[in-house]
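Lecture 7 notes: from sequence to structure.

We start with a single chain of 806 residues. Read the sequence below before looking at the structure.
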Amino acid sequence: MVKLTSRKGPADRENSRYYGKITGAPNLARTAVVGAGLLCALLASCAAPPGYQQGGTEAPEWDCTPLDPLRGQLPAKPCFRATLSQHNLVTVEWRVRNSRGLVYLADALGPNYIDPGYQAAECADGFEGGCRYRQRVNSGGFHRWQLGVTAPSGEQLFATTELTVPAPFPPRLTGGGALDPLAPQPVVVSWEADPRNAPHNATLRSAWIAVQDPETGRWPVGELWPRSGDRAHYTVLPSMLDDAGELNFVARDCRTVANTRIRLCSANSWAGLYSTGDHFLADNPLYIDGDKELQLTFTTRAGQERELDSASLLPGGPVRTTAASISLAAPNLTAGEHELTVRSCTGERCAAPHTLRIIVDSGVSWETNRDYEEDFYPAVAHNLFGEGIPLDITWGANSGLWLTREFTNSLTHVDATGKLHVYEVPLGRRAQFASANPQRVKPFAINLGDQGRVATSISGLSEKVIEAHGKLWFTQGGDRHKGAVQGGVNYSRIVSFDPAAQDLAVTAQDDRFCVYAMPSAPDAADGDNHVLSIAAVGQRIWVSEMRGLRSKRPGAISAFLPDAVHCSNDLDYSDPRALAGIMSYCSNGATAADGCIETWPIANAKPAMLEADPTDGSLWFTDAGGNYLGNFDSRREQPFKLHPLAEPSRLDWSIRADADAVYFVSFFKRTLYRFDKRLQSIQGLTIPSRATQGAKLHTIDIDHRTRRIWFTLANENPVARKPDAATIGYIDLDSWQAQVNGKAEKVRGVVYTGLQRAPYPERRPHRHQGFHGIAVEPGTGRIAIATMWRDQVTQLSPRPEFYGAD
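Now the structure, written as tokens:
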């Protein structure tokens, strides 16, 4: 897919800055569409599966029209294309007329934006003065390039082309798992290369397995492991595990391309190792009725015996056993919450305990073994491309799904037909030197641990996406910690995208985007707003400003009127004069109508996620510090109302509201809270999970028709000890409301199983899902889930008997 656009402008020097207008027909600008037809066209073949067993072919004959900035229109067959040959040799070709001596070739879809840069417009070895750029790539993936052509009189023309380079298939790892902390032994991890890749009898110098150093996390240069046979394994020593007793073993399949030194590698394969004692084989917390004996089982893989202890359930003191189960008498199972621990022991040496919470007669009835296909048709998985971690998701009115991703600079769309589009969010450019390639600005910061905070062009915070005023709205921001940024700043941006608008041919950036640049926080000089969430009330757009998760700086809630503020798509964040012209905080009696942003600071809370109340127009917000549920209304004399939690929570995050209540989550405690508006009281329900590590309560959404609140349980560990613990579930809101009103005995909840059967992408085989955002489509009950480790959107369609007929 190629788009040409023209822009007339003043004459410029030879290496003028090329940026902006790229791709397709109106409403297809700067977007990638992945489908069988496109991939076949790009690779010139559909006969082979997407491994590197097929090397590609030389570019076919080219029936096209050269790019001519004086024409100012899109040719039917423009001369700009990318082709693949010799497995990993990408050739980008162009033909131009009426151009200056140089064109500009850019990386049009980050995340690092390493541009090929200025290239000769015409070369002697092609028709119509054609020219080309060649690049060897060392990994598979999606690529998009942008070409800028300028006429001597200043007219400009821009085009894009894109290509998917098939990656080798990853190796299959076996081994890993649990180590006995009381008698640690080396563990062997073995692998088998996928037979669709290079032959197993290939020489070690031409095809090998690369193993990431378990202790440093680096890929050792020159360390080549055989792809099969007696030596296709690695011995992990107990001393290699980290301080938490864990290790993620990573390997990939690599080869060199004939007659080159360039290697082409698969995606990573993972195996987890962890030093841990025994644990219970039960939901945690375990909700039970207290009128009968309870039989509990646990693992017996560590130590010589197990020691169980509970102050309330084992009043006689700790019990040691070599059995794999224990019976708890009904008289000891009194109403309320109990804790029971198990730890592995050998003599006087014992491992760390595993604690099971047992909640007796709680008033909650959980069904935790319900297969999702009892209520839904088999899952559909939309495989993503490009970079970034799937994070939040929403349904657009008649326009499919919209997705934000962490650590990228794009907006992803799955349209109503299932096709995938990726739109690059505008970034300004600047040239440091007269002859240098113009570089994209770096308005954000990312925390690299020991390396500190560094400047970047990709957003580490894209926590929330909503639809309002016919547009998609989301936020971008940098690192939320404190400290100086090496060589840059740490600003936040608010972005809108209008899918119904036209991408005009006379502008440099995608006109469907409008970027609103946030000013520096009042107590900072280089950004540090840490804008997280976004909401719309009336014509105003509201955002939460955390201003440092662990800092003592006051957070804030702020608002502006988009119609009163200009877009800052091309802002140069290194230019103080440009920064002086962006939207500022209101002062001296000014309001949002004057084109500034109004802000209300709050000293004793850290606003995280926002939710507009559907009845009174106020804003509810979670406190990332875990101390309050907040309500904000600028019309009140005291805009903030804080409702304290009975005990501190941990990273309260996702939030939803209906006419009766406000619902919000504690990410780490895996607790869903309900604030009753009438009673002004907070009640919490902890979601059960069989995961022994990593399961967090991530996101919630309400299906108002069926009165269900849906949630995702995320496991963000790269290797999950229990892969199917990443799942979804719901709580029936009518039963919860009835119990609050004294009209029902039990709140009904479901946690599903079986979602791990959803198709996984071939480039990420056998990965667990790590569910993040969840969204329910109004009127249909279809559910969409941002799926982290598989890099997918998982979509579920309810069966009629579950959702109900119209």
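Residues 36-43 form the longest helix (8 residues). Keep this in mind for problem set 3.
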